[in-house]
Amino acid sequence: MQVGSRTLIMNPASGSGDHAEFARQKARGKGFAVWETEGEGDGYRLGQRAAEEDVSEVAVCGGDGTINEVLRGLAAADHLDDVTLDVIPAGTANLLAGTLGIRDVRHGFELTDKGEIRSVDVGTADGEPFVVSCIAGFPADASTSASTDLKRRLGTLAFVVSGIQQAVEFDGLDLRVDLHGAGRSDTWEGSAVTILVGNARRFIEEGGQADMENGLFDVAVVEDVPAGNLAMEAATHRLLGEGTDSVHHFQAAQVTVSSDEPITFSRDGEIAEHDRVTMFARPQALDLRVGPDYEPDP
């Protein structure tokens, strides 16, 4: 492997699993070495290997979880600042790709030659990186309960189905949230059904893309909503709308979430439990290629 080379890290089992052969051929035709994952944790190890071999351009073909594994490996080897990331979306939800304006596998490969390179923020949760979001509460539980089989059969609808099931059963979280940045400090304390910390995503009003280049998280805390009402609000897109009294919105560069009991967090699809976690926004810490529909200042 030569210094400065291009490498594709692919999860052949992501999504429907029908992208692998096409991705291999396109990658090799564009001068990428092809490394494939075979199980959990391989993306992390291959990210570390890319750093050890001083790869300057890493394409990741898979879902948001695979991308997060590779990012963790690159970050652990202190290589984030020295690499350009290409996103080749082959997962179920493909949230990061959607934010970046990357439509599908074919489009992702087209952008490896002509896509604009932007420097975007990277979040860290107790030192572990995330690019899309870090969430706790019933959405995180829903992401763990949506089985692989359900996701393959229903696609993104699997998360909606699991989310409604979890909303009905979810008991809520007793949280303290300390926020700093944007010229102010805030504290929120109480019982919440979810906290959503977005880097690439914002959750209030219509939702959608957050500003990935301003050094701030978009944070939403939802409190005191009965589970049945929560499912109905979410289904009618009113839950995080403007004027909803139970939703609290903040922007912050540092967020600390603490509780007396361990809480399940979903960090770009990777699951971890914390009773206290501090998240920092690292301004413009990663170079990645974007599509023409990406909005630097949404």
- What CATH architecture label of the largest domain applies? Sandwich
Structural domain count: 2
Q: Describe the main β-sheet briefly.
A: 13 strands, mixed
Mean pLDDT metric: 84
The end-to-end distance, rounded to whole angstroms, is 39 Å
List its salient traits:
single chain; 298 residues; alpha+beta; Rossmann fold; Tumour Suppressor Smad4; 2 domains; 13-stranded mixed sheet; 9 helices; 15 strands; elongated
Which helices and strands occur, and which strands form pairs?
Layout: E1 6-10, H1 20-29, E2 32-36, H2 42-52, E3 57-62, H3 64-76, E4 84-89, H4 95-100, H5 105-114, E5 116-125, E6 128-130, E7 133-137, H6 138-145, H7 148-154, H8 157-169, E8 173-181, E9 184-198, E10 201-202, E11 208-209, E12 217-223, H9 227-235, E13 247-252, E14 254-267, E15 270-290
Parallel strand pairs: 1-2, 1-3, 3-4, 4-15
Antiparallel strand pairs: 5-6, 5-15, 7-9, 7-14, 8-9, 8-14, 9-12, 10-11, 12-13, 14-15
Description:
By secondary structure, the chain is of the alpha+beta class. The chain folds into two domains: 6-114, Rossmann fold (3-Layer(aba) Sandwich); 130-282, Tumour Suppressor Smad4 (Sandwich). Helix content is 29%, strand content 39%. It contains nine helices and 15 strands. The chain has helices at 20-29, 42-52, 64-76, 95-100, 105-114, 138-145, 148-154, 157-169, 227-235; strands at 6-10, 32-36, 57-62, 84-89, 116-125, 128-130, 133-137, 173-181, 184-198, 201-202, 208-209, 217-223, 247-252, 254-267, 270-290. The strands form two sheets. Strands 1, 2, 3, 4, 5, 6, 7, 8, 9, 12, 13, 14 and 15 form a 13-stranded mixed sheet that branches. Strand 3 (57-62), helix 3 and strand 4 form a beta-alpha-beta unit. Helix 8 (157-169) packs antiparallel against helix 9 (227-235). The radius of gyration is 19 Å and the shape is elongated. The model is unreliable at 143-168 (pLDDT under 50).
